[in-house]
Design brief:
Rossmann fold, hydrolase activity, 245 residues, disordered N terminus, 9 helices, 7 strands
Amino acid sequence: MSESIDGDHVEVNLGGKGAIDRELLAWAGSHLAIGDPARVDRIRDEIETGFATMAQIELAVSVFGSSRTERTHQHYALARDTAKLLGESGFSIITGGGPGVMEAANRGAKDAGALSVGCNISLPHEQEPNPYLDLSITFEHFFVRRLMFVRYSSGFLIAPGGFGTLDEMFEALVLMQTGKIEHFPLVLLDSTFWGGMLEWIEDKLMGLGLVDADDRQLVHIADTPQEALAAVQAEIDLAAVRSTG
């Protein structure tokens, strides 16, 4: 007999986002249908531990990007400066806790005196947490880690990166598109890097009717920390209007 994660049986204080959490837990459970009850229990425990550890986080932005970005690269500086401005504006910063863009964003949060969070992942080639974390938690399962990013973020900031970054970006878009989570700002950093992809989406996907124009509007783009902050804040303000409307 296979088992899956049941949102109604995860013992955690859901706060004011109970319905959203149940949707997210159902999504997390869709990644798992196995005949190993002990493993299901371990995953349930990992979710509960993640929720309990990250419960102190209120307003936060998750920053994604390449772990390979060098400290001397302009993308490192852009991620650090943007996270610093977000931190000064009242946001905590959440990353994957590793090097590259993740380190840059956590470093920017520390520059601003904001809460700096790392959600690391246990890998065969061990990824050490970067030295700029106030709160660090290591997950065994990618989808549990992803659940924490989505649950505790008010927005996603996507710096240049590779397949992992693209995976994180597109899964967030699918969750918004399908109504599994509320719309929140998803901001791409550096139009010269992302511009070709956006043109392809508009030309091929929208041109062939594979996605709607509304779906394209889920993605914002910014070239400066100020533009990124403005995009994040505008979308959060719009969401607040929707929730009271």
